[in-house]
Specification:
Elements: H1 8-17, H2 22-40, E1 43-46, E2 64-68, H3 95-103, E3 106-111, E4 131-132, E5 135-139, H4 145-152, E6 158-163, H5 169-175, E7 178-181, E8 201-206, H6 209-219, H7 237-240, E9 249-253, H8 254-257, H9 267-285, E10 289-293, H10 297-318, H11 336-347, H12 350-363, H13 365-392, E11 395-399, H14 420-424, H15 427-431, E12 436-444, E13 447-455, H16 460-472
Parallel strand pairs: 2-3, 9-10, 9-11
Antiparallel strand pairs: 1-3, 4-5, 6-8, 7-8, 7-12, 11-13, 12-13
Length: 485
Amino acid sequence: MKYMNKSIEELHEMLIKGEVTSDELVRESLELSHEVQKKCNAFVTILDDAKGCEVTDNLLSGIPYGVKDNYSTKDILSTGSSNTLKDYVPFFNATAVEHLNTAGAIKVNKTAMDEFGMGGTGTTGHTGIQKNPWDTTRLCAGSSSGSAAAVASGVYPYALGSDTGDSIRKPAAYCGIVGYKPTYGMISRYGLFAFASSLDHCGVLARSVRDAAIVVDTMKGLDINDMTSWDSSNVHLRSACTGEVKGKKLCYIKEIVDKERYKNASQELLDHLDNFYKTVENARELGMTVDEVSVDEAILKAQPSVYVVISCAEATSNMSNLTGISFGPRGEGDNYIDMMKDHRTKGFSPLIKRRFVIGSYVLQKENQERYFKNAQRVRRLLVDRWKEMFKDYDAIILPVGSGPAKHIDGSKDILDENTAALEEHLQVGNFGGFPSITIPNGFVSGLPVGVNITGNCYDDENVLNIAYALESTMEYKGQIAKEVK
């Protein structure tokens, strides 16, 4: 009998009743890890010595899970999928990991990712490309690509991810699972490798909204080691998932989902938008109001560039410590400057080096006003516009991306030149620190697509309950990837 395809609550009940042991769950998860590694290249490290533990009243106790490789894990290799840290073994756990350890959760692997969370494709990590379990010629998206592939393949009920632009939510959509990024600071970032500190969020990938709620209920909390964390002790996500949503008000943005905007739209894009409108009708049938609103196209078009400027600037600053001197493999050279140059030249992939060049350029004194400060101003305009919508609406509902997962080689993907806002709008959730969750929303070309619900800061209970209610109208909760090729 297979167990890893079950929900957290189902597994917990079986453990409590003695129908399965924690050791048996761990063994199955490890076996599946090796199978999925061969198929999808989803992991940096598989912890073959992982063991079960005593089961307690905590729902996560004794159940395996995966950890994205940019979370610090004590005495376990933590590379951020970069050659600059290919041998790095931390001496401490990230706070989120420590909370799960305390709960009795059992980590069985470290999941592969885009290098330091940069890339968004699952192709830039030092161990190679992560392949989509539904179709191995397609991407998982990134950067939480390994976590998405593993959860979708049924290796365990959930895995940790991080989200700086859409790095939990888009991989979740491409792999047919749930991806949840809570309000900024709900989960401590202490021990998460910093990419862009004002945008980075910890979160989870799971196969149901309720499982995501259970995990974040455990991970969250005030942390003296992270001054951006806040007291969420009065937030109870699991118990908030009641499905009672009558009277809730949602909106979607016309300029993002209007089919008339996409003159050269592929059939996949059109089918994806049809799926979205069906879900809008589902929401109405549940008793919610769903309105169409307009947002200035100028700021929508500027948004992807704003993300590039701000994220690259912060990454350049955050990763200046990766010199090969304090930690990481030493570079070669006659002096420390040459050693650092050698380390950074050989250690980073071309994409990451390009982002560092952009970040350094926009931070130069003569360029700051034109690029970095203007990007911050547009960020403020976007966040203010979203907050205006939250005055009248409980959440914003939009499709994720322009269709199903893109091909790894890109040769068969037909993208309309106007799809930038559709592809990248999830980044606004990071600009404003808003709670945001993606759930499966059917299939296009036999591959999963997703829909996203984003709400105002600190309104996570409301956002998850809306997602939970919508999930109940569809048949994709708990689904395991079935290769379509």
